[in-house]
Write a structure and sequence with these properties.
The complex is a heterodimer of chains A (about 220) and B (about 300). Chain A is of the alpha/beta class and about 220 residues long. Helices cover about 35% and strands about 15% of the residues of chain A. Chain A has a seven-stranded mixed sheet with strand order 1-7-6-2-5-3-4, with helices on both faces. Chain B is built from eleven helices and two strands, in the order H-H-H-H-H-H-H-H-E-E-H-H-H. Chain B folds into two domains: about 1-60; about 60-310, no CATH class. The chains are: A alpha/beta (about 220), B mainly alpha (about 300).
Chain lengths: ~220, ~300
Amino acid sequence: MSKIALKTFTLLQTVTSVGLSALAWVVTGVRPIWNGSQPSDRQRIYFANHTSHGDFILLSACLSEKERAITHAVAAGEYWGKSRLRRFIAEDMLSSVLINRQWTKPEENPIEIMLSVLDQGHSLILFPEGTRNMTEEPLLAFRSGLYNLSMARPEVELIPCWIENMSRVLPKGQFLPVPLLCRVVFGAPVTVAPGEERRAFLDRAHATLLALNPRPERDD
Amino acid sequence: MRHDISILIIGLLVVLTTASIVAAILSARAPKPLSSTLVNLTQRINAWWVMVALMTVAFFFGRYGLTILFALISFASLREFVTLTHTRRSDHWVLLGMFGIIIPFQYWLVWTAWYGLFVIFIPVYCFLLMPAITALHGDTERFLERIAAQQWAVMISVYCVSHVPALLTLDVPGFEGRNLLLIAFLIIVVQGSDVLQYIFGKLFGKHRFSPTVSPSKTWEGLIGGLVSASLLGALLSFVTPFSPLQAACVAFVACSMGFLGGLVASAIKRDQGVKDWGHLIEGHGGMMDRTDSLIFAAPIFFHIVRYFWTV
């Protein structure tokens, strides 16, 4: 299933997205801070730090209704594809794109799946750390996906998004959120420089994202 | 009482309309682009329209409306306070309890007028049990700082704020069924004092009151604001159980506490390296930026009325 056909939002997806955005506002009073980029409906890959299942909800709550309808979070197939219920939540309610990190068959190649989404004009939310960060480090090293996608589709904007406080709102293993104020800082687009090496680019994207944290001394 | 409330609401509408007209004239005459002070002034006045509208609706629903409104104000304030403090993963259940148990229970105590438990639930029971739960989690990293911040958060955002609707539970002889007016008096006088201090400070402010804590507070603003707010209190004595002189004195004490509340809030923000508590109210900052004075004034006002005017 390397080519997934994307439709516009179903009623269920619209209701879910409006409901979750409202919930995000009630719990976290979430507010976007556009620091180097502006809201736009052009095709983008939003890449963000990842500490909680709530990250994607918070980020999409900062987008307009129109952008939300064409923006898909990339989620781990090993987790969200495990049962029919999880798959239903991830795909039919949240319109996520599931990829397997331990893929074997060529049609499971995550890059191919993500490219097929981009080729239909849609945007992606990507967590390049590859997993939720539970360490004391503010941000783990990036995996290669971001670089590969940008090389294959250089016209798509890569927007770094720092999600603040979400690890405190909903730590790993907890399901009840503590109401704390959260902001999402959207930075200036990052592009691969001509001749830039994979690791150099990934480290630069990593540093750019980290530099968006408005209160670094709070992260411990 | 309907009559008194109508007079207060009409008075507020006149003041707000005048403020909006003045701001519009100032903006029209000022060179473009407008200075940040003028933009902020307009934002603040617009936010006041919304806040007065919300308060009016709450007053219309009486005891229900005010209890729920102040529970929500506690929620917003607590959220801002806790966001600024250092929390760790092991604090999760204590933090959840602050929002999910302490706020509802404290306001239930207000609702049922259980005075004995209302005054000790947070300062005694929560004070002892919250650090005990934190200790049971076994995480001692910055322990004293965390439990102190948690205690302060619930004292300020929940305990102090809940004294506003608790005014409804007081039995003032000859004032039965009119307690809503005590709340209206307190809010108008204390918030009015903030606005008057701002105006006097902008117009005449020269000598800073405490440069290290809050550069915007001046002696001129403080004195002008307190004197005029006390006069406002005397003018409003017709809606209270107080004589005009008593009303002026009570207003003076409440507004002085309010000023100190603003000072303490500024010190906390400065310590934490932020300018505002949050971003809930356009032009004002967060909920706590608006309620810091009320938070300090409410418990003192409550106990003055309770000690001198109830049986």
